[in-house]
Specification:
four-stranded antiparallel sheet; 26% strand
Amino acid sequence: MKKCPYSAQREQILAEAISPVAGELRLLDAADLISLLRFERYGNIADLVASAAELYFLPGTVNFGLGGDYKLDWGGPAEVTIDLEIKPHGVTIYAKLALAEHHAGIEINHIAFDRASTDPDENTALLARSLMDARYVIHGEIARAS
């Protein structure tokens, strides 16, 4: 995606929202993820992503985007990158989630707003609001969020 002045802010919002899902996926063995990518077992990866996401987001919000990559050198750390399609209400985000041993990162490839505003700040606020609305709410969490 061509970076704009709002890209870093939007990636930060997405990173904060998606971090629990990334944490769940990082519990998987890197070798298993690499073998699923290498042998194109995309249905299995989609199931793993859906299982990780269902703990935190409404169904259909976070999906595997049918692709990925990995870096694996002799004696070096493994890094797995998977494509995600994130669809909270009113927004569609195509992103790459990078998973490493001690951290994860997200890069937005494309973002589309169903009813985009001419004001980029409003679009950024819509992204944050939509991601928050797509999360499961645990009793007592509303009081802390307010």
